[in-house]
TrEMBL record:
Pfam families: Ribosomal_S5, Ribosomal_S5_C. It comes from the Bacteria. This is Small ribosomal subunit protein uS5. The keyword Ribosomal protein applies. Keywords: Ribonucleoprotein, Ribosomal protein, RNA-binding, rRNA-binding. It comes from Taishania pollutisoli. One of its GO terms (biological process) is translation. One of its GO terms (cellular component) is cytoplasm. Part of the 30S ribosomal subunit. Contacts proteins S4 and S8. With S4 and S12 plays an important role in translational accuracy.
């Protein structure tokens, strides 16, 4: 599969909403007892085609979430949305998790579970059929969903890349 340029976006002057996907408590046992710390997976998006994910680790939950939001703002990508859904079926993979996204008609809603749902809602997709296969680890599911979304292309970008008219893309 050919690698393509991912549409990176700068976080300045964009109104981003954050969603907490998962919080994990980690215990480190030392001579002096147990030390607890937290890791938080956060997804940010403007609900209009821009989304990013981040991981924050700290001794307190609120601090971990704040760090996760800052990390997510550094990893923003632009996703093409067509009539409130994805432009075409797409598979994404990361680690043991693979996801499948399919376009859906108006009124279907977001048919996705857990970590995938928060990514799709943050990007602004309102109608989609999605299936998570393999690992249900939220870290990998979020990254696999972002991978699938980053591979999405709309008809205009396909026409521009091939150097042909938009009409020729559809009528061959």
């Amino acid at each position: 599969m050919a690698t393509q340029a991912v549409n990176k976006v700068k976080s300045s002057d964009i109104e981003l909403k954050d969603k907490l996907v998962a919080v994990n408590r980690v215990t480190k046992v030392t001579k002096g007892g147990r030390t607890f710390s937290f890791s938080a997976i956060v997804v940010v998006g403007d609900e209009n085609g821009i989304v990013g994910h981040g991981l924050g680790k700290a001794k307190e939950v609120t601090e971990a979430i704040t760090k996760g939001i800052d990390d997510a703002k550094k990893n923003l990508i632009k996703v093409p949305i067509l009539k409130g859904t994805v432009p075409h079926p797409q598979k994404g993979k990361f680690g043991g998790a693979s996801v499948l996204l399919k376009p859906a008609s108006e009124g279907t809603g977001v048919i996705a579970g857990g970590a995938m749902r928060s990514v799709l809602e943050s990007v602004g997709i309102h109608n989609v059929l999605a299936k998570s296969q393999g690992s249900s680890n939220p870290h990998n599911v979020v990254k696999a969903t972002i991978d699938a979304l980053s591979q999405m292309r709309d008809a205009v970008s396909v026409a521009r890349q091939r150097g042909i008219s938009l009409d020729k893309v559809f009528n061959g």
